[in-house]
Specification:
- It is built from five helices and 48 strands.
- The strands form four sheets. The protein has a 26-stranded antiparallel β-barrel. Strands 8, 9, 10, 11, 12, 13, 14 and 15 form an eight-stranded mixed β-sheet that branches.
- β28 (542-560) and β29 (564-581) form a beta hairpin.
Length: 908
């Protein structure tokens, strides 16, 4: 703890020192003035004012107050231009010469001349506020958030208030995971956000839009249907939309580490072609430019091959086409050691120590397509088919020891599994839309079809020695299991909207869903040791079908006002579930009815301040594995069995958000809260036998809920965003029920977190980014209060880059991680340092030679804690350790007939 405090104090001292030094080294001066109408002499409020330097780079910008006054604070001196753009007025430009000793300049009263026409919008390019709030969108001006040279989009996202990027590349916003990324509104290689964030260069983006995206049908009708997802849309700069760009990297290092990747993009305004290819055995820790990429931390050691192509065509007004195909071939080796405490009642627990190793190989083909077209002026359609085909082969081995409550050994186990699977998945969504001459009247039909199939063959061996009451026995398992699981589901939703009264729209909708899933499971034993698997085990063989069906009718009323809008409505859903055990000739049928109101309210206090609240209900059906009544003996110490009597669960969800951005000082605040109450949640019912074996069976229980809240404050030290703080506070509480030896148990987990980010960029010569994160967890169990646990996680990261003479760039990334309050051997404290030195050369700076090292101190480890309904588990995993690599990167681009860098910003 002492070392943690010392490092935190040192980081704070460095951050404050750099911020103070940067402001001291660059003496500020001010430009003041007042803007009025030339004819009426009335003040012009909210007028954008910019001070532009060389090549029209923004030195300072502001907006006028209610009296038309403005103050610009800048450090850049010499020849500058004062530019004022205001709707309906002729743009004002004035040359300024600022000496080295000047501290203030008065521009006096500036009278703006009205134009003869009313302009819809006037922009000064390079002068835009960094954040803009819209009803369902937070829009970031990409150029306001500086990144290192040749950075990919992922590095830009880490600078944006309200967006977090985890070490594995997962993007989160407002506590939700971003599920899809669009480029100019079009999909980019399907639904994997990392395809865009880790391959596209940050400097081609004009805007980053964080969208609470409704379903395609709800976007058309204008009335929410409860289906929303977090989506990022990257808007490409206008001068980057015609040309081609990309980069290729090849690197080789110690321990036979290699990394090669290439991405090629050709943009022709309404057409886009992209290719991405990569090969590495470094867990993807080298980014496309051959640099450091993410900080690593993924478990196991992987070799990966990837190739994919993408095509977009929006040239036709009648038909827009988007398609992509990619194939991935991976091989991952894993090792882990774990310590698990199973909690049953106040005087009963079991403890499991285990060691695992495995090898997994997988090949996945993925094809996506989107067709959007207009049949005529009234009819239009969207069709999105998707096909995924996977082959997977795996081998795993496990050694474990189970102790009882008195820490006496009750069993030891050695087991292994060899498995092979083939999994084709096909899905299609088709939306047919009909407009009418009457504005607001619409009719739409949305059809969804999904087909999934999984053929798995596995060979399971297990040797378990039980010690009970002074006696010992050996149980063995040597089986071949073949299973085929398939499911087919189709869903159709009809919606009709009609304008009623003034600024109000009524929607009537109906949904029908039908699903059929089947599971055929065959288990064979050997008739003699070493022989064929020729004895069918009837007790572990089963044929099972499950049919789900529901009808849902809904009514919604939407009201739209100047400052606010709201939607209120209700849904009634009738669920039918029929489970058929074909082996035993048994059928279980059940029916339930759910009634759920829906509501959404949004209020815009001003252009940069908004509030939104949403409530919705949702039904979830049990999965086929949860219904299948045959025991799964692949782990003889944890036997899983389905429950055909399960009922659907129903979730009540509430989301509240408040966002504000101050145009005067560029400070932002994002506040959000989500809550969920789960009725009839499917949870584990666990029984512990005297020999240490656990048997789990899913059951329905009430009493599950969770509550999460977050606050993000963006605090720039200057409007230029060259130095800025982000403060993130997170809090969460989760209560999960379970059955333990027939008794109810409630697991409560409280999580509190605080994150502080600081980013600093000094004239593109020095970049510094640092983050400090503290997380506290408090886990408690009603069945066993003496096993309650409290623990802390500490993370401190520092990312820096400095540009030296002769086009040499030095990069370093440091991550310090510490944990307290875990079990013996699982509290960790390590520092991972990644560093590189790069030399840029060739005409137009197209070549980069880089030497980098991953995990310089060779300290990298991975320890994870899992808190579930009735257990706490700590796991230590094998990770990639230190290696050195020399790489070469070739960067190429040609936009609008020009090579190299784009032309400087222009005023328009």
């Amino acid at each position: 703890m002492k070392k943690i405090r010392q490092i935190c104090l040192l980081t704070i001292w460095l951050v404050l020192g750099i911020a103070t030094a940067s402001r001291a080294q660059q003496r500020e001066f001010r430009v003041t003035g007042r803007i009025t109408d030339q004819a009426t002499r009335e003040a012009l409020p909210n007028a954008p004012v910019a001070l532009l330097g060389k090549d029209s780079v923004t030195a300072a910008h502001a907006v006028t107050d209610s009296l038309g006054r403005f103050t610009l604070t800048a450090t850049q001196r010499g020849s500058l231009r004062l530019v004022i753009a205001y709707m309906g007025y002729t743009q004002y430009t004035r040359e300024l010469q600022v000496s080295d000793t000047a501290t203030s300049i008065s521009a006096g009263n500036i009278a703006m001349a009205p134009k003869g026409i009313n302009l819809a919008r006037i922009d000064v390019e390079g002068f835009r506020q960094p954040i803009t709030l819209k009803e369902d969108t937070i829009e970031y001006n990409a150029s306001s958030f500086k990144t290192k040279e040749n950075a990919v989009v992922e590095e830009l996202l880490k600078k944006l208030p309200g967006i977090t990027v985890e070490r594995d590349g997962t993007i989160k916003a407002g506590g939700e995971t971003v599920s899809k990324v669009l480029v100019d509104g079009k999909p980019f290689f399907g639904n994997d956000p990392k395809m865009a964030t880790r391959n596209l260069p940050a400097d081609i983006l004009e805007k980053v839009q964080l969208i609470d995206q409704k379903s395609e049908q709800a976007q058309f009708t204008g009335i929410p249907d409860g289906q929303t997802q977090k989506v990022l849309n990257f808007t490409v700069k206008e001068n980057k939309r015609r040309g081609f760009f990309g980069r290729a990297t090849a690197g080789y290092g110690t321990d036979n580490r290699f990394s090669g990747n290439a991405n090629i993009n050709a943009f022709r305004k309404d057409k886009q072609y992209s290719f991405i290819g990569s090969a590495n055995n470094t867990n993807g820790t080298s980014n496309p430019e051959g640099g450091l990429g993410n900080m690593g931390g993924s478990t196991g050691i992987s070799r990966n091959w990837f190739g994919g192509v993408q095509y977009n065509n929006s040239t036709s007004q009648k038909l827009k086409v988007n398609g992509s195909y990619h194939v991935n071939d991976g091989r991952t080796e894993t090792e882990s050691n774990g310590s698990r405490q199973n909690i049953f009642r106040k005087d009963s627990s079991s403890y499991v120590q285990d060691a695992n190793n495995g090898l997994n190989t997988a090949t996945t083909h993925n094809m996506n397509m989107r067709l959007e077209g207009d049949i005529d002026s009234f009819y239009s359609f969207i069709v999105t088919p998707n096909v995924v085909y996977s082959n997977n082969d795996s081998y795993s081995q496990r050694f474990s020891t189970t102790l009882d409550n008195d820490r006496d050994t009750v069993n030891t186990n050695r087991s292994s599994t060899i498995a092979s699977s083939k999994t084709p998945n096909i899905s299609t969504n088709a939306l047919l839309r009909r407009k009418f001459r009457k504005k607001g009247r619409t009719l739409s039909a949305n059809l969804t079809y999904n087909y999934n199939n999984s053929d798995v063959t596995s060979f399971n061996e297990a040797y378990t020695r039980f010690s009970l009451n002074g006696q010992s026995r050996l149980d063995t398992i040597d089986q071949k299991v073949q299973s085929e699981n398939s499911s087919r589901q189709y869903n159709i939703r009809l919606a009709y909207t009609e304008p009623v009264f003034r600024n109000r729209f009524l929607e009537v909708n109906y949904t029908y869903n039908n699903g059929l899933s089947s599971s055929d499971r065959y288990t064979w034993d050997r008739s003699k040791p070493g022989g064929e698997y020729d004895l069918l085990n009837d007790s572990l063989t089963n044929h099972f079908n499950n049919i789900t069906e529901y009808h849902q009718a809904g009514l919604n009323l939407r009201t739209e006002k100047l400052k606010y809008n709201y939607t209120v409505g209700f849904n009634v859903q009738r669920n039918m579930l029929e489970s058929r055990n074909l082996t035993k000739g048994e059928t279980i049928a059940q029916a339930t009815t759910n009634f759920s109101p829906t509501a959404q309210f949004a209020y815009n206090f001003s252009q940069n301040k908004r509030f939104k609240m949403t409530y919705r209900g949702n039904t979830s059906q049990p999965s086929l594995d949860q219904l299948q009544p045959v025991p799964d003996l692949s782990n003889p110490l944890l036997i899983r069995q389905g429950n055909p009597d399960l009922k659907p669960s129903f979730q009540n969800m509430l989301n509240i958000s408040y966002n504000t951005f101050n145009k005067e000082n560029y400070r932002s605040w994002f506040l959000g809260m989500t809550g969920m109450v789960n009725l009839n949640k499917i949870v584990n019912g666990t029984t512990l036998r005297q020999d240490g074996v656990q048997v789990t069976k899913p059951v329905n229980m009430n009493g599950s809920y969770n509550l999460n809240a977050f606050s993000v404050i963006g605090l720039p030290l200057a409007k230029s965003q060259k130095a800025a703080f982000n403060f993130t506070t997170e809090a969460g509480y989760r209560k999960e029920p379970s059955l333990v030896n027939g008794a109810k148990n409630f697991a409560n987990n409280l999580t509190l977190g605080q994150v502080v980010n600081f980013n600093f960029n000094m004239r593109d010569k020095l970049y510094l980014g640092t983050e400090a994160r503290v997380t506290f967890n408090d886990a408690s169990f009603s069945a066993s209060p003496q096993n309650n646990a409290k623990y802390f996680n500490y993370d401190l990261s520092l990312d820096g880059a400095v540009t030296l003479p002769w086009d040499v760039v030095v990069n370093a990334q440091t991550l310090y991680t510490a944990t307290t309050g875990r079990g013996e051997g699982f509290d960790q404290q390590f520092t991972r340092i990644n560093a590189s030195i790069a030399k840029t050369f060739l005409p137009r700076r197209q070549g980069v030679l880089r030497l980098h090292v991953y995990d310089l101190l060779n300290q990298s480890v991975s320890v994870n804690r899992t808190v579930a309904d009735n257990y706490i588990e700590d796991t230590r995993n094998m990770v990639l350790r230190r290696y050195f690599m020399l790489s070469f990167t070739w960067i190429f681009n040609r936009f609008g007939g020009q090579n190299g860098a784009p032309p400087p910003p222009i005023i328009r």
